[in-house]
Design goal:
four-stranded antiparallel beta sheet, elongated
Length: 163
């Protein structure tokens, strides 16, 4: 059983607010349709289905989880996670790239300086890079409110895994 070295759960206010507003809008449209205040040519199931979809999306992306154990780093929003074993990690360092380079917040995949990146990004939070070897996406980047502690935790785990 692996031991947790570092754990952080970030409530993503901006992402939750944006998705929450869409969810509330879908709920209002559903109620209006059910009360026949807003007749629509759309199928009767469409608005409730969209409401449930956006509610699940909001719940999934409301919290970014970062868990660093003796064996691996697990980073993700809800059910969408990345697991990286320490044998696959070369280095860890703070990310200096502008958030605009990623094109937004949430989960992003992009190329930077010839390397593919998988980004788990929260609005306004600093980020940390896990540099992986032998992987089609060699960099995993995640937001954290404690970047120095996260980097130190990863480096501690790397030393333990190597020794």
């Amino acid at each position: 059983m692996s031991r947790t070295i570092y754990e952080e759960h970030i409530f993503c206010k901006g992402i939750a607010l944006a998705l929450g507003l869409v969810t509330v809008g879908m709920l209002v449209m559903t109620i209006r349709q059910w009360l026949a205040l807003s007749p629509s040519a759309d199928p009767v199931w469409l608005n409730p289905a969209l409401f449930v979809f956006f509610l699940l999306l909001t719940l999934n992306f409301a919290r970014l989880n970062v868990v660093i154990t003796d064996e691996q780093a697990t980073i993700g929003f809800g059910v969408i996670r990345s697991h990286t074993m320490w044998r696959d990690v070369v280095d860890c360092y703070p990310d200096e790239t502008s958030v605009l380079r990623y094109g937004g917040w949430g989960i992003r995949i992009g190329c930077h300086r010839g390397k593919w990146r998988l980004v788990f990004n929260d609005i306004g939070a600093p980020r940390v890079v896990l540099l992986r070897r032998n992987n089609s996406i060699p960099e995993v980047i995640f937001s954290t409110h404690r970047p120095e502690q996260a980097v130190e935790a990863v480096r501690t785990a790397l030393r333990r895994a190597a020794g």
